[in-house]
Amino acid sequence: MRVVQPARSSDDGYRAGLVPGVKSSADAVRLAEELAFSAARLAELAADPPGLYAEVAAEPDREEATWLAFLIAYLSPLSEVEGSDPFAAIRAVRTPWSTGELPDLGEVATGPRSAHDPAGGDRTLAAYRAWGARAGSQEYAFTGEQSWPPERRFARVFERLALPGLHRAARFDLLTALGRLGLYDLRADSLHLGTGDATEVAAKRVFAIGDRAVLEHRATDLAGAAGVPLDALDLAFVNWASPGDRITLGSRATPDAAIRDSTLAALGVTAPARV
Predict the structure, then answer these.
(1) Burial 42-54 (b: 16+ CB within 10 A, else e)
(2) In angstroms, rounded to a whole number, what is the distance separating the alpha carbons of residues 46 and 256?
(3) Residues ≥6 apart with Cβ < 8 Å to 185
C-alpha cells in the first residue's frame, strides 16, 4: 500500500506550544500520524523485523549481521510498489564480510535514505571496512567501552562513523536498527542534528527555530509529551515534511493508534474519526 502525503495545509489558526511552527490542525494530525507510524516501525524491528532486517537479527555471526545492517542503511530499502520487495536491490549485491569483497554497486538501485553516491564509487564501503579493521572488529567498533550507557554509546559511535560519504541519516538509521534488533546496546537521546539534512529542515519547520540546541531540546519535549521514543522523530519529521510517498524503509507496520491518539492529545487536536 502506498501512502501519499497531502500538500502542506493552510493556516487555520491552530497553535501549540510544543510545535510552534505548525500552523494548521491538519498538519498537526499528519505529524501525529507519522509519529505513530515511525514508532510502530521501531517496535516492529524489535519484535518482528521485515525483510533483510530479519536476517540481521537471526544471523549468529555478529560480524556478518553488522555488515548486512550497514549495507541496508547505506543503500536504503527501495520505496515500495505494490507487490515489490524493497530489499531486493540490497539482496542482489550483498557480499559476505568474511571474504573482504566489496559489493559491486555499479548498477544498484538505491532507496530514499541512501548515502551511496555513484560518483564516489566504493570509497564509503572501503572506509567502513577500514574503520572496523582499526578497531579490531566491527563488534569492538560498535561496542566501545563496556561501561558506556546505551545513550553514550550511540553518541560516540555516531560521531566516529563520520566516514567519507556516510551521511547523518544513514548513520542514524544504522545505529537505530542495530539497537532495535538487539545486536548492540544503543539508544539515541538526541537527533544529532547539525548537517542541514531533511530531518533538520523539517525540525526547523515544526519548531519554528534554527538553533540546534533548541531544536534538540524541543524534540525531546515533543517525544516525551507524545509518549514516543526520541528516535521515532527522525523518520517522522522527514515523512511529515514530504508531499510524496511515505518512506517506510521496508516496514510493514501500520501507525500505532494509541501513539497517534496520545500525540493528538499532547498537541491539543481532536482526533478525527477513523473510517
Answers:
(1) bbbbeeebbbbbe
(2) 15
(3) 150, 153, 179
The residue type of 142 is F
Query: Do the Cβ atoms of 145 and 91 come closer than 8 Å?
Result: no
Lookup result for grid cell 566489496: 102
pLDDT tens figures, 32-52: 999 999 999 999 999 999 999
The cell for 270 is 481532536
- Per the structure block, which three cell numbers stand in for 89? 536491490
H helices present in 59-161, as ranges: 62-75, 88-93, 123-135, 138-143, 150-160
* 62 close to 53: Cβ distance less than 8 angstroms: no
Tens-place pLDDT, residues 213-224 = 999 999 999 999
3-state SS assignment for residue 97: helix
Q: CA of 185: how far to CAs of 27, 54, 60, 89, in Å?
A: 35, 18, 17, 29
3-state secondary structure of 93: helix
* pLDDT for the residue numbered 184: 98
